[in-house]
Structures are given as C-alpha cells and as structure tokens.
Specification:
By secondary structure, this protein is mainly alpha-helical. It has helices at about 10-60, 70-75, 80, 100-130; strands at about 1-5, 5-10.
Length: about 130
C-alpha cells in the first residue's frame, strides 16, 4: 500500500481506476462509432439523391435541329432560327461537414481531463503543505 496525496492506494483502488478508464474509453469509442455510421448513411443518401438528379437531367428530350432555312428568314428574325430549351434548376442539398471535428472533441476531453488532474494534484499538494 502506498500513500498517494493523503489517500491509501490499494489494489482494489487501482482496479477501480483502471475500470473507470476502460469504461470511459468504451463509451467514447461507441459514440464515435455511432457518429461515423450516421455520417456514412447520410453520405450514401446524398449520393443516391445526386445520382437520381443526374439521371433526371440526362433524360432531357432532344429536339432535332432544323436544317438551314432560307437566308431571308434568318436575316429577318435571327431569334427564330436558334431555339433554346430551358434548363431546369434542380435544388441540391449540401453535404454535412465532416473532418477533424471528431478529433477536436477528443482533444477537448483530454484537455478537460488534464485540467481536472492538475487541479486535484494542486489541491492535494496544498493539503500536504498545510500539514507540514
């Protein structure tokens, strides 16, 4: 048994701390796994919608181009010789933002853990200094 910051550290205490760390790791891993699967499903749905939009746009009816008309008609009315078909503007949804946000969340957890440990060590050292 060792005395650590005024606490008696036993084998049960060490196993308890290790258990807490393992459970925290499993919960964090589960959260990342669920989040990544959700993003993958959203990405697949966006790809399906985009493919459907491309198929719909590629099925535009093609009209035959009229053969050259008399030059008198084209000179009199040049807009009649060139017909334009309106292009339908499809609404597209933007893909969700992915990237280092997951690592940033993990970094925030590590920073908070380090802050908590440093505060606890500081409090423990202050208690020891008062006893001396």
């Amino acid at each position: 048994m060792a005395i650590f910051g005024g606490w008696r550290l036993t084998r049960t205490g060490i196993l308890f701390i290790i258990g807490i760390i393992v459970l925290a790791g499993l919960v964090t891993g589960g959260i990342f796994l669920v989040k990544n699967r959700g993003e993958a499903v959203r990405r697949e749905e966006a790809v399906k919608v985009a493919e459907q939009n491309l198929e719909d746009q590629s099925e535009v009816a093609v009209q035959p181009v009229p053969v050259q008309e008399s030059t008198e008609q084209t000179e009199a009315n040049p807009s009649a010789a060139t017909e334009t078909t309106p292009v339908s503007a499809s609404t597209s949804e933007s893909l969700p933002q992915t990237g280092p946000a997951e690592l940033q969340a993990l970094g925030n957890v590590v920073i908070i853990a380090l802050l908590a440990f440093s505060v606890s060590f500081y409090v423990a050292s202050r208690r020891v200094s008062h006893h001396l």
